[in-house]
Amino acid sequence: MTACGRPVGWRSTPVPVRPSRPVHGADPALRQDRRQMVSTLSLGGMFDIPNNQLLLRQALKWGVTYWDTANSYEGGNSELGIGKYFAKYPEDRKNIFLVTKSTAWTLKGMTDHLNLSLERMQTDHVDLFFVHAIRSIATMDKDKQRWGEKAKADGKIRLFGFSTHSNMEECLLGGRRAWAGSTGS
């Protein structure tokens, strides 16, 4: 720690904005209008966010605009911490590409998790919603695809997809085949 109580190496001057890449909206007709730049670095929310608000503020100043959390991280406290931040800095929400995930694999469970996530994070939508940690592409059936389309139409999510920690090749190739030509993301 320095004499003023900041960690060694802490910088009070702004650092350069991190590289970013475009993310497109789900509607092909609107891709040009809905393009958003997202930082190549992300902030993962599996830590005590409610007590680390300065880290969120600093991440944004550093150009880290992709914030990733999940309904289950830290028992929901990760999302609550992001909500606490947005309550204090509501103008920052438009600069954040907000991602959350649900381990509920039922339509009702996904709906419940999404609504709880929106409430916790004090936002009306997330930019990307994942069905989290699927083990087989069969989990992502047509009912889930329709659920994602409805959530998009309702303005609760912009993009919909899945994450996996196992059977990655099968899930990615199967997902591409199953959802090719759809408006799924």
Q: How is this structure best described in words?
A:
The structure is a single chain. This protein has 185 residues and is an alpha/beta fold. It has five helices and seven strands. Strands 3-4-5-6-7 form a five-stranded parallel sheet, with helices on one face. Strands 1-2 form a two-stranded antiparallel ribbon. The radius of gyration is 17 Å and the shape is globular. The N terminus and C terminus are likely disordered.
Topology:
Blueprint: E1 20-23, E2 36-39, E3 42-44, H1 53-61, E4 66-68, H2 77-88, E5 97-102, H3 107-121, E6 126-134, H4 142-153, E7 157-164, H5 168-179
Parallel strand pairs: 3-4, 4-5, 5-6, 6-7
Antiparallel strand pairs: 1-2
Keyword list:
185 residues, alpha/beta, 5 helices, 32% helix, disordered N terminus
Low-confidence stretches: 1-18, 24-34, 181-185
What percent of residues adopt helix (DSSP H or I)? 25-40%
Number of helices: 5
What do the pLDDT scores average to? 79
Assembly of the depicted chains: single chain
Looking at the structure, what is the overall shape? globular
Alpha-beta classification: alpha/beta
Strand content: 15-25%
Please list the strands of the largest sheet in the order they lie side by side: 3-4-5-6-7
First-last Cα distance: 45 Å
Order of helices and strands: EEEHEHEHEHEH
Give the gist of this structure.
It contains five helices and seven strands; from the N terminus they run E-E-E-H-E-H-E-H-E-H-E-H. It is α/β, with parallel strands linked by helices and 185 residues long. Strand 4, helix 2 and strand 5 form a beta-alpha-beta unit.
